[in-house]
Specification:
By secondary structure, the chain is mainly α. Helix content is about 75%, strand content about 0%. Helix 1 packs across helix 13 and helix 4 packs across helix 9. The longest helix has 29 residues.
Length: about 280
C-alpha cells in the first residue's frame, strides 16, 4: 500500500512538472499570456487520439492496451508535426491561435459527447474518466515514461536555453541575429510542449488550464519572474510538488467515500485563473 502511495505521488509530481514546462515553452515563444496546451488545443488533440485508440481497441485490437495504442498514434502525430514545420508556424504565429484552439476544444468535446452517447447506447465501455484527470489508476509503464519524458525535455530545453532566452528580445531580433532561428524554436517549443501534454493526458486524463496557470504563478514570485532559466528548470519542481499535494488532498478528503478527481479541481481553478487573465488582458 505504501509503495502505491509513493508511486502515485511521484506520478503526480512528474505530471505537474511536465505541465508547467509545457505552458512555459509555448508562452515564451508566442509572448501570449493566454497561450497554453489547453487553449491551443493540444489537450483536445490528445483526447482525439485516445478516442481513436479506444475505438481501434474495441473493434480491432482488443488484446492491446489502450495506453499502448494511444502512444503509437501519438508518436505518428508527433512525426507528422515534426515534418510539417510550416503548419506549426502558421498555428503558433497566427493572431487567432487562441480562438482556433478553443474552437478545436469545442469540436473535440462534441465528438467526445457523441461517442459517449453511442457507446453507452450499445452498452459498451467508454473512457469517460479522461475528461477529468486523476491518479487513482496507474499503469506500470507510467512512471518510467514520465521520468524519461521529463529528462528528454529538460535536455533539449537546456541545450537551446540561450536561444530560447533570446526570444525575450523579440522574434525580429532573433531573426536578424540568426536567420531562421524563430522558426526552429517554434517547432522545438511546439513539439516539446505537445510531448509533455500528450504523455500526461494519455495516462491520466485532462488537467485543463493547469499548464496555462503554472507559469503565471511562477512569475508572481520575484525569484522566477526575471529568469527564464529558473522558470524552466527550477519552477517545474515546485509545480510538481503543488500538483502532488493537491492530489494527496483529493485522496484524503473524500466526499461520501468518493474521491474527487484532481483534474476536476484543476479545471475549476484553472478556468477561474483563465477568466482573471482575460479580464486583466482587456483592461
Amino acid at each position: 500500500m505504501e509503495m502505491e502511495l509513493v508511486l502515485r505521488f511521484l506520478c503526480a509530481f512528474c505530471a505537474g512538472a511536465l505541465l508547467s514546462l509545457a505552458g512555459s515553452l509555448v508562452q515564451n515563444f508566442t509572448h501570449n499570456d493566454l497561450a497554453g496546451p489547453s487553449t491551443l488545443g493540444f489537450e483536445a488533440l490528445i483526447v482525439l487520439v485516445i478516442l481513436l485508440a479506444h475505438f481501434l481497441g474495441v473493434y480491432y485490437f482488443p488484446e492491446t492496451s489502450e495506453e499502448a495504442l494511444s502512444l503509437f498514434i501519438f508518436i505518428l502525430c508527433l512525426g507528422f508535426a515534426f515534418f510539417k514545420q510550416k503548419l506549426i508556424e502558421k498555428w503558433l504565429l497566427n493572431d487567432s491561435m487562441i480562438l482556433l484552439g478553443l474552437c478545436f476544444n469545442l469540436f473535440v468535446g462534441a465528438i467526445f459527447s457523441l461517442m459517449q452517447f453511442l457507446f453507452f447506447s450499445l452498452s459498451m465501455e467508454f473512457p469517460t474518466q479522461i475528461w477529468f484527470g486523476n491518479f487513482r489508476y496507474i499503469a506500470d509503464s507510467a512512471l518510467p515514461l514520465l521520468i524519461f519524458t521529463l529528462v528528454i525535455i529538460y535536455y533539449f530545453t537546456g541545450r537551446f536555453l540561450k536561444e530560447l532566452s533570446m526570444l525575450g528580445f523579440g522574434k525580429e531580433f532573433c531573426e536578424n541575429v540568426h536567420p531562421g532561428l524563430p522558426q526552429k524554436l517554434g517547432k522545438l517549443s511546439w513539439i516539446l510542449s505537445l510531448t509533455a501534454t500528450g504523455v500526461v493526458t494519455i495516462y491520466f486524463g485532462v488537467f485543463s488550464f493547469s499548464s496555462l496557470i503554472f507559469p503565471h504563478l511562477a512569475r508572481r514570485i520575484p525569484y522566477f519572474r526575471y529568469s527564464l532559466k529558473r522558470e524552466l528548470f527550477v519552477w517545474p519542481l515546485f509545480a510538481g510538488g503543488i500538483f502532488a499535494t493537491l492530489d494527496y488532498s483529493c485522496r484524503e478528503i473524500l466526499f461520501y467515500n468518493t474521491e474527487i478527481p484532481v483534474g476536476m479541481l484543476s479545471s475549476i481553478l484553472g478556468a477561474l485563473g483563465l477568466m482573471i487573465l482575460v479580464v486583466r488582458k482587456k483592461t
